[in-house]
Amino acid sequence: MDAMAERDRDRRNTRPSPHDPLLARHREALDLFTERVHAIRPDQWDDPTPCTEWTVRDLVNHLAVEQMWVPPLVRDGRTIAEQGDALDGDLLGEDPVAAWDEAAAAAREAFTAPGALERTVDLSFGETPAEEYCAQITIDATVHAWDLSRAIGVDERIPKPLVDFSVRAVAPYAAELEKSGMFAAAVEPPSGADAQAKLLALLGREV
């Protein structure tokens, strides 16, 4: 292969994917939640969180199981029915930090595989483009990173790109969020609220 052909091949192989911004936000959301998980002290796992029915461990388990669903749905093309109850319950085991790290890495690998975001996945509410599924996972990890931050008393700031992405993604169906059962009813944001506070209020968080 001559030098010009090799350069052309390299340019094709490094051309940005239209999904790169979404995958970047997904990576940032998982990284943010990972930082918070690694900041949990041993005596904090049973502490309450802003998600009133969940302890810190419950919250981390929820996010970990959410990531565990990604490979079978996106990579393997399995349906909810085929997967059954294999991912029910507390799956964090004796080392919850390691369990989270493993689940997050597997989800990231599944979403970044060639062609993954062009697929359709079977979710509880029907067939959904994998791209939309990835966006939902990203928003959930972003907001729950704030929940975990508040629960364990660490920095609650969400990076601006994640705030902006979440607002854009949530706004079209904000009125339906409470009906979905995924989020509490929206609350009034405080006077002078910034973009992060407005996002959290939209998703039922008292800031």
Automatic annotation (TrEMBL):
Classification via Pfam families: MDMPI_N
Domain of life, source organism: Bacteria
InterPro entries for this protein: CHP03086 (IPR017520), DinB/YfiT-like (IPR034660), Maleyloyr_isom (IPR017517), MDMPI_metal-binding (IPR024344)
Domain Mycothiol-dependent maleylpyruvate isomerase metal-binding: 27-148
GO MF term set: metal ion binding
Chain intervals for the UniProt region annotation (Disordered): 1-22
Biased composition regions of type Basic and acidic residues, renumbered to the chain: 1-13
Stated name of the protein: Mycothiol-dependent maleylpyruvate isomerase metal-binding domain-containing protein
Organism: Streptomyces sparsogenes DSM 40356
Organism placement in taxonomy: Bacteria, Bacillati, Actinomycetota, Actinomycetes, Kitasatosporales
